[in-house]
Write a structure and sequence with these properties.
The chain folds into two domains: 29-126, Beta Barrel (Elongation Factor Tu (Ef-tu), domain 3), CATH 2.40.30; 137-298, 3-Layer(aba) Sandwich (Rossmann fold). The protein contains eight helices and 16 strands. It is globular. A seven-stranded antiparallel beta sheet has the order 4-3-7-1-2-6-5. Strands 11-10-9-8-12-13-16 form a seven-stranded mixed beta sheet, sandwiched between helices. It has 299 residues and is an alpha/beta fold.
Length: 299
């Protein structure tokens, strides 16, 4: 998933260390996280989506489900766009990683022009990996929120072959449904919701989630990634059933390493590293649904 760039009210945070110290600590301990990748495949998909397969052995070897990379989308001869773009890792195997993104802005437009064999600048893997599931797995993905769910499904199937996986996918139309075949190949039970009803049920993917918990009284390891409205709905349904979900959040991540605080979100009490705020790029991108201060986030 591309981490969406959204406007937030400015938040004044008191840093536990000054920004320069934080950045120097990052530099000294994470030099190996900068990689020069080579584009091996670049496919166009329906709905203005693109899939990238990039040769990056060091990154692929260390990446885990739930982490993301920071991509330098511009050409070396230019300075715009200045900031990197953050994308969830869809797969990491055999020395290669796969990304799925949607062409929606200047950075992704430049990425869409990348050619096979082109060298690209990648920073990662960044963020915290998803905690390993210990109960039947429920994956909920909407749009470009599907890629991290795919990687988690593959990782779970490899590590826990007998653990049941149920995947719920939301999309605007049948043409834009992502990951169905890949999930089915991993033995997952897949349910689909589309806005226009062209495949699966007509409506929101959260409706399927609600019915699943109502009808089966299922207690599972729940993970979700997608638009904020979808994640808010998942959190509400979990609260009704006395459960919690790990929500992978789509946020503006200007630096990706915890210095700029551009991705800070409000959390309950003092759960975050900055007391009532957590930086999505460092403490996340996954936060527990009952950890987020939804009331403050709405305002």
């Amino acid at each position: 998933m591309e981490r969406r760039r959204r406007r937030h009210k400015q938040v004044c945070l008191v840093l536990p260390n000054d920004a320069k110290s934080t950045f120097m600590q990052y530099q000294s301990s994470n030099r190996h996280r900068n990689h020069q990748g080579i584009v091996r495949e670049h496919l166009s998909l329906p709905g203005n989506y693109r899939k990238l397969r990039i040769d990056a052995p060091g990154l692929a070897q260390s990446a885990q489900a739930g982490q993301f990379i920071h991509v330098l989308t511009r050409h070396n001869s230019t300075t715009a766009p200045l900031l990197r773009r953050a994308f969830s890792i869809m797969s990491a195997q055999q020395g290669e990683i796969e990304l799925l993104y949607r062409v929606v802005g200047r950075g992704t437009v430049m990425m869409s022009e990348w050619n096979v064999e082109q060298r690209v600048d990648l920073l990662g893997p960044l963020g915290q990996p998803f905690p390993r599931p210990d109960r039947p797995v429920i994956l909920i993905g909407g749009g470009v929120g599907v890629p991290p769910m795919l990687m988690l499904a593959a990782q779970t199937r490899h590590e826990s072959p007998d653990l049941p996986i149920t995947a719920l996918i939301g999309a605007r139309t049948a043409r834009e449904v992502l990951g169905k075949m890949e999930l089915e190949k991993l033995g997952a039970t897949v349910h689909i919701a589309t806005d226009d009803g062209s495949v699966g049920i007509k409506g929101f993917v959260t409706s399927i989630f609600q019915k699943l918990l109502n009808n089966e009284n299922l207690r599972g390891s729940i993970y979700a990634c997608g638009p904020l409205g979808m994640l808010r709905g998942v959190a509400g349904i979990c609260a009704e059933h006395g459960q919690r979900a790990l929500l992978s959040l789509e946020e503006n991540m200007p630096c990706g390493i915890g210095v700029c605080n551009g991705c800070a979100l409000p959390v309950i009490s003092d759960a975050g590293a900055y007391h009532q705020y957590s930086r999505i790029c460092v403490e996340g991108p996954g936060l527990w649904s009952d950890q987020i201060d939804w009331e403050k986030l709405q305002s």
